[in-house]
Each structure stands twice: as structure tokens, then as C-alpha cells.
Design a protein that fits this description.
About 35% of the residues lie in helices and about 10% in strands. By secondary structure, it is an alpha+beta fold.
Length: about 300
């Protein structure tokens, strides 16, 4: 929620305005851009579709007298609709959410722009912090025609060249209190689909081989992103990738952010060991490079002006 599409002629339209679609579907899962507990929403410009969605929201029932077909049960002797009457015109599951959190959900929507700005700030920080580690680590590719809301930040990591597996890196970060995840295991390789709809999708397999989602939340700040990158590179550095396969990866200039006392929430809040951080190869203390902030701010500014 909150993402935008930028057309070739420069006109920006919000996802959900349905400029190029009949329907847009949004998730209110707790890990998404705004916290609404669970559930979702559908937007449409078509009144017929909107009416069908409203019916589907509650067992396909309608209280519209114009739609009633059982006239004897729906109306009294004077032709007025009975106030208790309704008709389910099509069997459906219960799709309605609890009504009491509506006020809280509207409050969350009012904060959406602030949440998006913070997420874009963290993404810009990750981009700047990971840039020195290319080609070993790269962010996902971008397109100028999209200004995403950044539900996820996915890093593409050459685990073979790094000399460790994805599981090893995830466990190392978990030991530092930093949660990561893989989004997602290829659907065509899930047993249900593989048995019914066998397919070979090399692009999906190549993406899966290197993807790792790093913590991203509006509760984070750029210092938190720095801790994540620092802890990840510590784990990679300890694996000594320079000695593997004859491929040399000279250690790039590092941007290290001192740990903060504030917890990372869902991202994990434990500090990296050592204060200030120390290079696992040289053992020397490293300090934050203040000039990195200028690069991060410039990258964020350019991203918001796309």
C-alpha cells in the first residue's frame, strides 16, 4: 500500500486508483507497511464489481429490497420490506473483519506517508551501505516507472563466492538478534504445484539461489540498517572468501554504524559483539564514516524525485 506507478509521460498514479486495472488488492498482514492486524482490502471503480464485493464480504448476503426474490418472506402485507430480512444469493465464506478496530485502522492510514518515507530512507541507507560490497552483494534491480512502498528489502548474495551458505548467514545474523527471511521459495517447486503443474522456471530458480530479505520496518532508522550490514559482513568475512576457488574479493571500504541502545523490534534488537565494532580480519576498531551519510541522503533524494 502506498506504491505508485510513473508513466512514460511523467504522470504518477497511486496503486489502487485502478488506472490500468479493474481491481487492486491490498494486504493488511502485520508485517506490511501499515499495521492493521490482519485482513485486506479491494478497490474498484466499477459499481457492479463493488456490489459483488460487498456481498462477498458477508456470506454473499444482501439486504437490498430490490434484489429480494422471496417476496412472501421479504415484504409485509403493505409491501414494505421486513426489517430483519436478508437473502444469501450465493454461498460464500465469511470475509468480514472485526469492526471494532476500524478507528485504529483509519489512524494507521493517516500515518501511511510517514511510514513510507521512513521505509524509503532505510532502503536508501541499505543501498549506500551495500554498494561497496558489489558484486558479492547487490540489491534488487529497480525501474524508474515504479516508486515502491518497500514491504521488503531483498539483497542478492553470491553465497558460493562468499564461501558460506544462506542458512549459515541467517543463523549467524540470528545469533546477533537480527531476523532475516527468504521471499520466497519458488512456487513451481512446492510439492502441490510440482505434482500438478510441473514446470521449469530458470529465472525463478536463479533469483531464489541468491535472495535474502533483510530487516525493514518503519520502526528502524539508518543506524539500524548499518548494524545489519555490519553484522552480515562480519559473518561473510569470517568465512575467508579470498581463499576459495582462486577468486579474490578485496575487502571494500566499510561503513560501520555504532550499535544503538534502541531495539530493532521485528528486525531483531541484539547488538553486534564489540563496542566499537572491530574488523574480524585485522582486529582493529572501525569508526563510522560521516561522509557516508551524504551519499545516503543524496540517494534518497534522487529516489523520491523519480
Amino acid at each position: 500500500m502506498g506504491a505508485s506507478h510513473i508513466a512514460s509521460h511523467g504522470v504518477t498514479s497511486r496503486i489502487g486508483a485502478n488506472a490500468h486495472a479493474d481491481l487492486s488488492v491490498f494486504s493488511f498482514h502485520p508485517v506490511k507497511a501499515i499495521a492493521m492486524g490482519e485482513g485486506g482490502a479491494v478497490t474498484t471503480d466499477d459499481p457492479v464489481t463493488a456490489e459483488r464485493l460487498v456481498r462477498a464480504r458477508n456470506h454473499g448476503m444482501t439486504r437490498d429490497p430490490k434484489a429480494f426474490t422471496n417476496l412472501a418472506g421479504a415484504f409485509d402485507g403493505q409491501g414494505n420490506p421486513n426489517p430483519w430480512y436478508y437473502e444469501p444469493h450465493r454461498a460464500r465464506v465469511q470475509l468480514a473483519r472485526q469492526r471494532h478496530p476500524v478507528r485504529a485502522r483509519l489512524s494507521q492510514l493517516a500515518k501511511l506517508e510517514r511510514f513510507l518515507m521512513r521505509r524509503r530512507e532505510i532502503v536508501a541507507a541499505y543501498d549506500g551501505l551495500l554498494a561497496p560490497y558489489a558484486p558479492l552483494v547487490r540489491p534488487l534491480g529497480r525501474t524508474r516507472n515504479c516508486l515502491p512502498a518497500w514491504h521488503l528489502y531483498v539483497a542478492r548474495i553470491d553465497f558460493e563466492a562468499a564461501g558460506l551458505t544462506r542458512a549459515q548467514l541467517m543463523r549467524a545474523l540470528s545469533n546477533e538478534g537480527i531476523g532475516t527471511q527468504v521471499h520466497y521459495f519458488p512456487v513451481h517447486r512446492q510439492p502441490y504445484y510440482a505434482q500438478r503443474y510441473p514446470a521449469t522456471l530458470p529465472g525463478a530458480d536463479r533469483y531464489y539461489a541468491r535472495c535474502l530479505s533483510l530487516p525493514l520496518s518503519a520502526a528502524m532508522d539508518v543506524r539500524d540498517a548499518g548494524r545489519v550490514v555490519d553484522c552480515a559482513w562480519r559473518a561473510i568475512s569470517i568465512s575467508e572468501p579470498r581463499k576459495r576457488n582462486g577468486r579474490g574479493f578485496p575487502r571494500p571500504f566499510r561503513i560501520v554504524i555504532p550499535p544503538t541502545p534502541r531495539a530493532l523490534g521485528r528486525a531483531g534488537g541484539a547488538r553486534c559483539s564489540g563496542s566499537p565494532p572491530r574488523d574480524p580480519l585485522s582486529g582493529k576498531s572501525e569508526m563510522m564514516v560521516c561522509g557516508a551519510w551524504l551519499a545516503i541522503r543524496q540517494r534518497l533524494h534522487a529516489q523520491l524525485l523519480l
